[in-house]
Amino acid sequence: MIPPGLLPEGLRDRLPPQAEATAALVHGLTATFASHGYERVQPPLVEYEESLGSRLGGAARRELLRFTDPISQHTLALRSDITGQVGRIAVTRLAATARPLRLSYAGPVLRVRGTQLSPERESVQVGVELIGSDSPAAAGEVVSLAVTALAGTGLAGLSLDLTMPTLVADLVAAGWPLGRASLADVQALLDGKDVGGLHALGAGAFEPLIAAAGPADAALARLAALPLPDAVRARLDAVAALVAALPDIAVTLDPTERHGFEYQTWIGFSLFGAGVPGEIGRGGAYAIVTPEGATEAAIGFSLYVDGLVDAGLGVVDARRVLLPLGTDAAVAARLRADGWATVAALSADARPADFRCTHILDGVEPRAI
Amino acid sequence: MIPPGLLPEGLRDRLPPQAEATAALVHGLTATFASHGYERVQPPLVEYEESLGSRLGGAARRELLRFTDPISQHTLALRSDITGQVGRIAVTRLAATARPLRLSYAGPVLRVRGTQLSPERESVQVGVELIGSDSPAAAGEVVSLAVTALAGTGLAGLSLDLTMPTLVADLVAAGWPLGRASLADVQALLDGKDVGGLHALGAGAFEPLIAAAGPADAALARLAALPLPDAVRARLDAVAALVAALPDIAVTLDPTERHGFEYQTWIGFSLFGAGVPGEIGRGGAYAIVTPEGATEAAIGFSLYVDGLVDAGLGVVDARRVLLPLGTDAAVAARLRADGWATVAALSADARPADFRCTHILDGVEPRAI
């Protein structure tokens, strides 16, 4: 028998004031997205496993919580990510809507198991997708929006880590010598910062990429000094312009890092902040596969609200006033219209502190206690 | 193979503007709850089936979507209702918090199958629970809050249907003659308004309860004329006071109706409105079982937001302005601060109508188009 009050591993209740903080952060972030023209969509929590899974990578697909639908006998799954659902909506139900299409979303996601850094199995994901373009201008808008939205939460120490997920493949395509290594070998050696390994396989040309990681301005300068094809140089210019347009936050560039998001195209990014372990959010450019088998360019980001809540952000400092028995309803309504949360005493001995009230109504005005 | 874009039966995407309307309604309703002192809790979407199921009636328990947890091998279920989760929190993690405890919640719920009236399997439930009292004052507060919150959504034709779920049992306990009928027989005959059946079993004393259904004032007067025990008469007085304190909406009393919510105690209620098929919400007094096996009185209500959205409520009429290429970032920020949603053109030929913009920026001011 399950003890009353016990929850399965990796699942938790949010209590006051954290539950309200979660709602306030979601509201604030999505309001910022809306003010930049992103329109809300709300896909369902559950879809066909085949449909959800086909829009995830293999490892992520194994993290889907799945079950047999008692109605259709199909295998359904709880979504572990909303990005893919938004892409599905964009290329099916909103296929005829003009591009770029700007969509936002917010809601819970679930996965089979948490990680050491983030043991929760249920979390709240919010984000935007800009569909129909992954141009430098689109990337600039999306990265800037992520930074603006997070800054609006009061998060301190916000920093941005940029990556160029297709850089190595682009250089190989442009003729940089692989020696006896494969593209995958070179990417793995770069992920491990393995200079010796690169040289051993005759792929020493890629070594300078390891040194070109760090604060964005210096990293961009180091990269620009390399013999790059024009297309890559244009992307560096786009990254430099994007960085220049950001407010004064720490920006690093780790050009060959892929963060396990191999589906991204020319730019990827992660966001970090003071007091939040691990990433707060991530995003990048990618391609959505349409029902006709074509692809459509897109760029977006997801933010994970729970890390912000755990860091103490979003807490709403409500002014709470206890209304003694018999308080006139019109007086109570006026206080609420003035921004007070009113707590009606149901007995003559109700004490303000028991109800987290900072004030008690004295006549027609709140009195601090 | 599942066609791209196909969703399982009973599940749907919310698109613009309905997705935003859902979020706006949830925000408005929960803000009203907060202004009345109700503090937010957020239980998980998934719990042990045993735990969720034990707080539901038998029929509702069969509607839980369940699956085996790949981690613990326990049977888990997706919640079909949040009320029971809030009760669990109240009597476990918040057992030591002063009563009455006022909690609110909002979130998705899922069930195995929809109904003919409401085919969706996923819906958004919001509500409040007042825990530690089901006194007339508590009932008055909760019913009034439900009406106030719904009125704030702009819903027209709001009406309230009150019930007294334990009335028949209370009258039997006070000695009203059952004849050859059982309590369950009488309740079933009253549910079917079966006058002949009541008389045939010698339970004709209960017949006047059938006529005492209808507009609340008249129904209360008819009931008051019956030979009632003092405890029931006191409850009628409480219902009359509650009705008198409400704004000018249609209130009916169907004293013996139980709406399938047999766990309710002395009062139950349902809410209806123009353009919304079926109930918008329901509530009532009930008892929460504590881990020690005792009970704690509570009263609350749940509202179902999807019916309001489907009736066209909650749609946010955003002022959207297209920003031509090269618009100054400071000008854009000022427009957003003034309440505009800005849509940045990513190409010189962007047309306002394609992005649902009502205005285009002309110099530093929006111009209607």
TrEMBL record, chains A, B:
InterPro entries referenced in this protein's UniProt entry, alphabetically: aa-tRNA-synth_II/BPL/LPL, HisRS-like_core, HisRS/HisZ, HisZ
Functional summary from the UniProt entry: Required for the first step of histidine biosynthesis. May allow the feedback regulation of ATP phosphoribosyltransferase activity by histidine.
A GO term from the CC aspect: cytoplasm
Residues annotated to bind L-histidine: D81, I82, T83, R111, Q125, E129
Class II Histidinyl-tRNA synthetase (HisRS)-like catalytic core domain boundaries: 10-307
Subcellular compartments: Cytoplasm
Quaternary structure annotation from Swiss-Prot or TrEMBL: Heteromultimer composed of HisG and HisZ subunits.
Family: Belongs to the class-II aminoacyl-tRNA synthetase family. HisZ subfamily.
GO molecular function: glycosyltransferase activity; histidine-tRNA ligase activity
Lineage of the species this protein comes from: Bacteria, Pseudomonadati, Pseudomonadota, Alphaproteobacteria, Sphingomonadales
Organism in which the protein naturally occurs: Sandarakinorhabdus fusca
GO BP, sorted A to Z: histidyl-tRNA aminoacylation; L-histidine biosynthetic process
Recorded metabolic or biological pathway in which this protein acts: Amino-acid biosynthesis; L-histidine biosynthesis; L-histidine from 5-phospho-alpha-D-ribose 1-diphosphate: step 1/9
Superkingdom of origin: Bacteria
Protein name as catalogued: ATP phosphoribosyltransferase regulatory subunit
Alphabetical keyword list: Amino-acid biosynthesis, Cytoplasm, Glycosyltransferase, Histidine biosynthesis, Transferase
Comment field (misc): This function is generally fulfilled by the C-terminal part of HisG, which is missing in some bacteria such as this one.
